[in-house]
Amino acid sequence: MASGWWEPVRDYCERTGPELFAEPLNAASNAAFVVAAILLLRRGRAPDLVADAFAWLIGAIGIGSALFHTLAVQWAMLADVIPIALFIHAYFFLALRRFLGVSALPALAGTLAFAVAAALFEPALAGLAGRPLGPLSNGSIGYAPAALALFGVGAASLRAGNRAGHRDGAALIGLGVLFLVSLTARTLDPALCPLLPIGTHWLWHLLNAGVLYGLVRAARRAGPAP
C-alpha cells in the first residue's frame, strides 16, 4: 500500500524526470493561488468569514498543487485534487445562496444533486461516445460540470431582472469564459509538448487563480445570503 501512495505520476509535458524541481513552471505558477488568497484576506473591508474561508481554501489549492508538481506521487495528487473539489462544491452552494437567494436546505439539496451529476457526467458521456473521454481531454472533461454550473448560475442571475442580478450574472459568465480559456491551456499541454517543451499547464494555474479570485470577490460583493 505504501508503495502505491509513492508511485510516481508523470502526466505533464514539463516533467522529463523524477527530480523534485523537474516542473519549475508548473510548481512556481502555484504562487498565483497564494497571492490570490492574500489579496482576498487583506484588511480594510467589511468582515465576511465565509469569503475568508474560501480565500484560505484557495491558498490550500496552491499548496496542494505545488506539492503535486514537485513530489509528483500519488498521495500528493490527492493533496492537489481534494481542495479543488471542496472549492467547486462549496462554491456551488454559496452561489445558490448569495446569487440566487436559495434558502439553506434547498441549496444543500441542489449541491448534493450537482455532486452526483458531476460524478456521473464523464461516465455518461463516455458511454454515449463509446470510448473514454479523459485521455482525449487530458482529464479536463472532469471540470466541465463546474464550467456548466458557472454559466447556469450566471444566466439565472441575469434573469433576475435587477441591477445586482445583472452585475453578478455578468461577472459569473465572464469568469466562466476565463475558466474555459484556462481549461484549454490544461487540455493542450500534451498536444503542444513537441512544439513547446515547457507545456501549457502552468498557464492553467495562472488563469485559474484569477478565476477563483474573481469568484470570491463576486460572492463577497453579493454579501451574505438573507
TrEMBL record:
Origin superkingdom: Bacteria
Transmembrane feature ranges: 20-41, 53-69, 75-94, 99-121, 141-158, 170-188, 194-216
UniProt key word Ubl conjugation: no
Keywords for the protein's UniProt record, in alphabetical order: Membrane, Transmembrane, Transmembrane helix
Keyword Transmembrane: yes
Protein name as annotated: Ceramidase
Species assigned in the record: Methylobacterium nonmethylotrophicum
